[in-house]
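Illustration 12: Copper chaperone PCu(A)C.
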Amino acid sequence: MRGTVQRGVRGGTGLLALLAGGLALTLTACGGDSAGADDAKPELKVSTGYVPQPVGHDMAAGFFVVTNKGGADRLTSVTSPLAAEVTLHSTKDGEMREQDSFTVPAHGRLDFARGGNHLMFERLRHTPKRGETVTVTLHFAKSGAVKAVLPVKETTYQPPSAGDTQDKQ
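Figure caption equivalent — predicted structure in token form:
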């Protein structure tokens, strides 16, 4: 640090930049009592979920929406009695990729929908049929475990679009 300050003093403008940066850090750190949106407690709600009735006997997909009225969180894993393993996936440009986690933005939503983010239930313990339900436990970094019950729908079922909501409050 000493070498940096000495060079700044010789150059003149370097010292001013250093002082201005320190002032900016001080002002940012003294932001008052209001916490940033990411520091606030997440307020999560899972809705519009479903599992399409699988065609095969060893895998199924799952879809839902997580709405967040609080601070940011991260979906880190999902478990279910339906399958030996449940993995998180994204689809971009037609290519499916397994994900370690998904961000749930502060005052935002995380969508799991056909053609995008989704769950993969792997090594099914039984093949779910239309009319049954699938219990899942979503594990979040800050909020902990959140249970949801997803109905099994016909494979032609289409969830509401991002602007629609099934459960009005």
